[in-house]
Amino acid sequence: MSVIVVGAGPTGLMLAGDLAEAGVEVTVLEKRAEESNLTRAFALHARTLELFDMRGIADEIVGQGYQVPRVRATMGGREAVLDMHHPESRFKYVLTVQQARTEVLLQRRAERLGVRIQRGAEVTGLDQDEDGVTLTVRTGEGERTERATHVVGTDGAHSVVRAQLGVGFSGHSYDTHIILADVRLDQDLPRAVNPFMGSDGVALLPPYGDGWFRATVWDQTRQAVPLDHPVTPDELNESLGRITGGQLSVAETRWSTRFLSERRQADHYRVGRALLAGDAAHVHSPMGAMGMNTGIQDAANLAWKLVAVERGWAPPWLLDTYEDERHPVGRATLRLTDLILRMAVAPAPIRAIRPHVVPRLLRNRKVSDRVRRLMSGLGVRYDRPVQVADTVSVGQRVDDLPLVSDGERTRLYELADPTRFTLLDATEAGYPAEAAEPWADRVRALHVRAELSEGADVLLVRPDGYAAWSGERPSADQVRTALNEWTGSP
Ligand SMILES: Cc1cc2nc3c(=O)[nH]c(=O)nc-3n(C[C@H](O)[C@H](O)[C@H](O)COP(=O)(O)OP(=O)(O)OC[C@H]3O[C@@H](n4cnc5c(N)ncnc54)[C@H](O)[C@@H]3O)c2cc1C
């Protein structure tokens, strides 16, 4: 019983770490011989940080990043502000931090937990049968095969796993190439993600907090420039100056690239024993900084389900919920990033009304809350699988509840185990926690003092932090039924 993860990007490293934490044998095959040092994604959103918190690694990355509490868009001489000071989370900001640092964090965790990462190993072929998957792998020493019970393709936008499975990647490429660069500016900017929307493009400028900014520049006058043309300092300066109406100029550039943005999603996330996650499953514009975050959240959703299958206790429907739950999230991400982009590079009539409409829209609490929760991942909720009981809050994200456990004040995410369910038993007598004892290998039962959701005094939380079941003074039998539905017989 073993899993092979193809690709050591952030999605693959998160997934491999979780599998190893649960004791599943896991190998990561990565075609690059060297570790990545690319900047690429520049931000971690609150839900990703919450998932890191449940794994005890959030504080380390927060210490390396810069906390940015709002998005401040400038257009036609007006400003529109989106507040990212999330009241429901411990992480009340967007954390700007280079992708390479996130990868190092996840790689160290994976290695600590015993994951084997083989670099210079490129997957070129895939065959599956009833019992497992066989991969063809090309290395410096030649070609060989590897076999596993499950394979996950986290091998990025040009996924070989996806191609080998014959899964379509529906969507289209955007016309304009994006310029990405890390720059110092001659001017200072507020502590915000700063999009500037001009008449022929948009420039996004989040700060790293050390004087450097990530410039993402979508300049429609440069759309014919080939991808392999290096970005020159003059070109960047001219684009940025024009789009921001002369407000900004570049003092120094340390890294730049041209990037073809696409909007595509895999038609399926699962074919038999092979699964897709991260950029292999969805790609979209970098507006909103959601790509890497969505991939890491895919991994958190998939890992415990694969653990359940590998361990043999998964109900037959469980692994299918990965696609059922994450495909709609991917679709919503594509829609939101597309809408932001269309707003940013809109035709003239929309550009004329944009400075009047967007600030007003974002002042509407309902609208701004919806966008904020979508972007940060905090608003994700899942439908109840038909196979389980319908109780209050099934599928909702569970807050980082303050708890008293064993006489100590603590909080849910500190106690959470990303590979096991958590049963919070806030009854006086503690009989639900006792009833859960036979499931101890997959359910961590805690007798606590806590205010649980909407009158419930027992709450079953999935390993990825969503509510599975809740009860108000349930009988021990009702607790056992819920555990049976989600985690099989003990
Ligand atoms: C130039 C660039 C700029 C970007 N900028 C932003 C941004 O500003 N904001 C944002 O949110 N996102 C950005 N992204 C997207 C973000 O980087 C991705 O969403 C994120 O890296 C996805 O992680 P992943 O692990 O799913 O895939 P990847 O990070 O792509 O990792 C896939 C891994 O699989 C390996 N691999 C591929 N094929 C094989 C094979 N056949 N065998 C073995 N290994 C293989 C690759 O070498 C790679 O290491 C950018 C992407 C690029 C390319």
UniProtKB/TrEMBL annotation:
Keywords: FAD, Flavoprotein, Monooxygenase, Oxidoreductase. The keyword Oxidoreductase applies. It comes from Nocardiopsis exhalans. Pfam families: FAD_binding_3, Rng_hyd_C. It comes from the Bacteria. Residues 2-335 form the FAD-binding domain. This is FAD-dependent monooxygenase. Its cofactor is FAD. GO terms for molecular function: monooxygenase activity.
